[in-house]
Specification:
The protein is an alpha/beta fold and 509 residues long. 33% of the residues lie in helices and 24% in strands.
């Protein structure tokens, strides 16, 4: 996208909040600086990976240029984490109000003002956008260039009619939503995560395609806000990558919120008839049929942003999954690294952040940090949330590991009972014969907050026994994690150990 792109083509509606957003992340009057003679690092892409790389390197004294053709902040700020969590929080407030009577609180009618929900989303996104603004990165010592960057060969990147010379370069151009090859889908005006947050009116009948994290999060959110939501998935089940005990809890939660879920569905066509979208489909579990919707949201599939970079000129290998890198995040060209969604299977903001830290060390300081050494948690922000870190049991068994799994149900945790949030569990898997944690899954309202404790333990070699020996405040839901430490410690009391203790106690009476 050129520097002259009309702001109205990027995001809408152009109210005061989105004007503030655009002034920060795609300033219309921005004047690119004169290039320095040679940069320690030129970063292409101003999403999370690119921003962390640029500001981190500049903070260490490097001369850095950052190129962004679209919106600084990338998917996370503009079309991902930030707006989606604002929407989800509003939908949770609506659900909590409807369910208040269970706590002895009477609420006479709940009405969702969808335009106000979206206005709040835009306002908070604009408020946060200052952190990712072009002006802020300029103040922090980064030369910010707005425009399409492309490699010219050797050690050069062209942008806005100027050439930037580099010692090292970083590709951090991210990924985008893909268009599914369904006849008539895009012509009918299907939404993606990049456009759904532009809505100002609630779709009364919404089809969500894809029961992965994006699909289930937004299906539940829109249902709670008042849409009649149908969720179609081509595969069997939903959240197929997750622990299936956890996925089943979310499936039941979606059903309670009114989401009609169908799996094993093949969408054959979409036709626009007036304002309606008629979807023809067939399913393994039902006869073929058609159904009308007011809006369709595609929540599946990501494609790497490799177009327009002229990667072939600098010998950078790539395929349909993105730029190819080794475990040090170096491309086939030793001068060029990549970070974030453009090269990683784990497309999370926090993974992009930490991959950028690896790139800074390896590219500028001859480091040998490995991406595979990272302990990466993630969370699906349904209600309840599902958070996971490490291996799943099937992965551990496939590696030939012998494991023991400990499960603490939340209906046996006092705080969860008091909160009325008893659906869920904490599951921790250890290597048989010890307490080394191999993986964990948490299902509860704030699982994303709780998984951090287990991630810290895994990253620092603290086993399940160590967690059990750590005092947790009572009453909290995180006490479920400590209870699993206790459960592990009880397994250490073997018949032989019990016999020895009994003799000792008999002697000391």
């Amino acid at each position: 996208m050129s520097q002259e792109t009309n702001a109205a083509d990027l995001i809408s509606p152009l109210d005061e909040h989105n004007r503030t957003l655009l002034a920060n992340v795609h300033p219309g009057g921005w004047v690119n600086p004169e290039p320095a003679g040679r940069y320690n690092m030129v970063v292409i892409g101003g999403g999370t990976a690119g921003l962390v790389t640029a500001v981190g390197a500049a903070g260490l004294g490097a001369k850095v240029a950052l190129i962004e053709r679209h919106l600084m902040g990338g998917d996370c700020l503009n079309a991902g984490c930030v707006p989606s969590k604002a929407l989800i929080r509003a939908s949770r407030a609506a659900a909590q109000a409807r369910g208040a009577q269970a706590y002895g609180v009477k609420v006479d009618g709940v009405r969702v003002d969808f335009p106000a929900v979206m206005e709040r989303l835009r306002r908070l996104r604009a408020q946060i956008s200052g952190n990712d603004s072009a002006a802020r990165y300029k103040r922090l010592g980064v030369d910010v260039f707005v425009g399409q960057g492309r490699f010219t060969g050797g050690d050069g990147v062209a942008v806005g009619g100027k050439t930037l010379r580099f010692a090292k370069a970083v590709i951090a151009t991210g990924a985008r939503a893909v268009a599914l090859p369904i006849p008539g889908l895009m012509a009918a005006g299907a939404l993606t995560n990049e456009t759904v947050f532009n809505l100002t009116e609630l779709p009364q009948r919404l089809l969500v395609i894809g029961a992965g994290p994006i699909g289930v999060e937004l299906a539940q959110a829109f249902a709670r806000l008042g849409s009649r939501v149908t969720l179609f998935e081509a595969m069997h089940g939903l959240l197929t990558r997750e622990d299936q005990d956890a996925a089943e809890i979310v499936r039941k939660a979606l059903a309670r919120d009114g989401v009609e879920f169908q799996c094993c569905v093949d969408i054959e066509s979409v036709k626009k008839t007036g304002d309606a979208k008629t979807v023809g489909f067939k399913s393994k579990h039902a006869p073929p049929g058609t159904k009308e919707f007011d809006a369709i949201l595609v929540g599946v599939g990501r494609a790497p942003n490799v177009e327009g970079l002229d990667l072939d000129k600098v010998g950078v290998a790539y395929d349909k999954f993105g730029v190819k890198v080794d475990d040090h995040l170096r491309t086939a060209n030793p001068k060029i690294y990549a970070a974030g969604d453009i090269c990683l299977a784990q497309k999370f903001t926090h993974t992009a952040d930490f991959s950028a830290r690896i790139v800074i060390q390896n590219a500028l300081f001859l480091g040998r940090k490995r991406f595979s050494a990272l302990t990466i948690p993630w969370c699906t922000y349904t209600d309840p949330e599902i958070a996971h870190v490490g291996l799943y049991e099937k992965e551990a068994l496939a590696k030939g590991l012998k494991v023991r799994t400990f499960v603490q149900k939340l209906d046996e945790v006092d705080r969860a009972v008091l909160d009325g949030e008893t659906e869920g569990f904490v599951k921790i898997m250890v290597e048989d014969g010890g307490d080394n944690i191999l993986g964990a899954t948490v299902v509860t309202a704030h699982a994303g907050d709780m998984i951090g404790e287990i991630s810290v333990a895994m990253n620092n070699g603290v086993g399940l026994a160590g967690i059990g020996a750590t005092i947790h405040p009572y009453p909290t839901q995180s006490e479920a994690i400590r209870k699993l430490g206790d459960a592990y410690n009880r397994t250490r009391l073997t018949p032989t150990a019990r016999s020895i203790l009994s003799r000792w106690l008999a002697l000391t009476r």
